[in-house]
Amino acid sequence: MILQHTLRAPVYTRGVGLHGGRKVNLTLRPAPANTGIVFSRVDLPEKPSFQVEPHRVTDTRMCSALEANGAKVATVEHLLSALAGLAVDNLLIELDGPEIPIMDGSAAPFVYLIQGVGLEAQNAPRRYIRVLRPVRVEEGDKWAEFRPYEGYRLRFHIDFDHPALQQSGNALHMDFSRAEYVREISRARTFGFMRDVEYLRAHGLALGGTLDNAIVMDELSVLNAEGLRYADEFVKHKVLDALGDLYLSGHPLLAEFDAYKSGHGLNNQLLCALMDQPEAWEWASFTEKDTVPEAVQAGAA
Ligand SMILES: [Zn+2]
Predict the structure, then answer these.
(1) Mean pLDDT, residues 119-141
(2) Cys staple from 67: which of 9, 72, 242, 281, with CB 3.0 to 4.6 Å?
(3) How far is the CA of 192 from the centre of ligand 1 (A)?
(4) Percent of residues in the chain assigned helix, strand, coil, to nearest 5
(5) Ligand 1 centre and the CA of 11: distance in Å?
(6) What is the pLDDT of residue 64?
(7) Whose CA is closest to 268, among 52, 21, 105, 32?
(8) How far, in Å, is the centroid of ligand 1 from the Cα of 30?
(9) Residue 194's pLDDT is what?
(10) How many CB atoms lie within 10 A of CB 44?
(11) Is 155:259 a contact under the CB 8 Å cutoff?
């Protein structure tokens, strides 16, 4: 049987929002089985809260932002990626500002925080979303697609006209496993270009961005003195983002995800397109150990 999991104990951290530049306190609290992933804005009157849901995404310009019940929470994707990567089903996420802290621009600080207290199995089977037929969305030359697969497999291709990105691997194929997520994906940082910084700041974005929480490139090369964490850190970060964006359903997927130049907006469109077609998916649980496919076991272990 594959059970739902939550945290063993609450954990706390504090950091700056990438876009607003404000300090935010973040507490992750254990939640009962079948609660899902819930955000709560504890700085607002009556502390409004809401469950993650793909149709609650209201802004995907530079991050994934959610809004419901009068509460907005931005830059959710790296925290959600860590929750997807570690297979956390139920969690109450409390924050006292409009944006999840950017930390070091990757999911690793959230992974360490959660691994520090560990997970607790709960007395309810994990509920998967099993893709039954292909679903595809396109936007210009960009596309993203789900195909049926009894496990979780990710394929991602990027194509940037930039020397640093062209030297780096631009494609990644992986059969998702928790160990590989922690080792190979979670440390990949967000990235951006110097030429965009002025434009972003004029629009009130990236105000908290520094070389400590993003890979920044000029016209030719990476400006961060320490260089890259992985030779193919860029495409790995796109996979990290996709894992977070696709966890906005609040449930792990049994699917193959294949994408070309996709981003937060297209990832969300794909998830909404899947959820909107009831004949394209079904709920699945594994209640007998011997019926769990190996690829599913690797993601849940
Ligand atoms: Zn990101």
Answers:
(1) 97
(2) 72
(3) 10
(4) 30, 35, 40
(5) 22
(6) 82
(7) 52
(8) 25
(9) 85
(10) 16
(11) yes
pLDDT, residue 193, reads: 87
Query: For residue 286, what are its two tokens?
Result: 């594994």
Q: How far apart are CA 194 and CA 81, in angstroms?
A: 26
Residue 286 carries which side chain, given as an amino acid letter? F
> What region, left, alpha or beta, does residue 106 occupy, with left being phi > 0 and alpha being psi -120 to 50 degrees?
beta
Q: How far is the CA of 288 from the centre of ligand 1 (A)?
A: 36
Statement: residue 15 has pLDDT above 80:
yes
Q: Which two tokens stand for residue 260?
A: 């070309």
Ligand 1 midpoint to CA 241 (Å)? 5
Candidate list 5, 237, 251, 264, residue with the active-site label: 264
- Residue 292: the pLDDT is 84
Residues with CB under 5 A from ligand 1 (ion): 190, 241
- Give the model's pLDDT for residue 195: 83
Ligand 1 mean position, distance from CA 74 (Å): 12
Concerning whether 264 is annotated as a catalytic residue, the answer is yes
Which pair of structure tokens corresponds to residue 17? 């929002």
